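Checklist before submission:
- one chain only
- standard amino acids only
- sequence pasted in full

Submission:
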Amino acid sequence: MFPNRSLLLFRSLSVLLLVIIITEFVSAQRFKGGISGGLVASEISGDNLAGPNKLGWYASVYTATSLSELSELKLTIMYIEKGSRSVPDESNNFFEYRLSLNYVEVPVTYRIDITSFTQNRYLSKLVLEGGLSASAIVGSKEQEGGSEVPEMDNREFYPLEGNVLLGLTYPIGNIFDFHFGFSHGFTPARPHASGTETWYNKGQYNMLWTLGITYEIW
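Returned file contents:
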């Protein structure tokens, strides 16, 4: 299931505009930036499946500017795979299921170096990160028992979602960093199968952990 062409065109133009803005800032030498990528372990809360069992990947470009000696603001544009999976075994009566979701995501995060909070030579290198992101879905595929779920049985995914982000970064060289992150949607990816809602639970929410490497280019 894919969004209509006009929505895809809007998203593509939005991403292009952000890239142009970032390029202009970088050319003014006010920002640093680079690329990152890695693995994603994901699940969807509310689907009654244990997780995270769905493995995917992400790739991104980012730019950041210093707010103080120990903090900075970071803007990222990424492609990321999310979803859910049931691994068939005796505990689930050999139920086989896979949901693959593809998103273009724009996180904005605040990063702080904890050097001033600890004297430990290893912990002082950590950088803590937190923020929000907006995601636009660009593709989805749902399979059960090895066969694709018919579109008529498919609940439609919302075109956009918002997420809360947490993470930490640890340097492994002058230009490389190890990054671990956690993300949880604060808006649902799609409604519950039953259609029920409460004030704090509007549907199924993406939840994921990322593990990757960041390379600073400029």
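Reviewer check: Residues 5-27 form the longest helix (23 residues).
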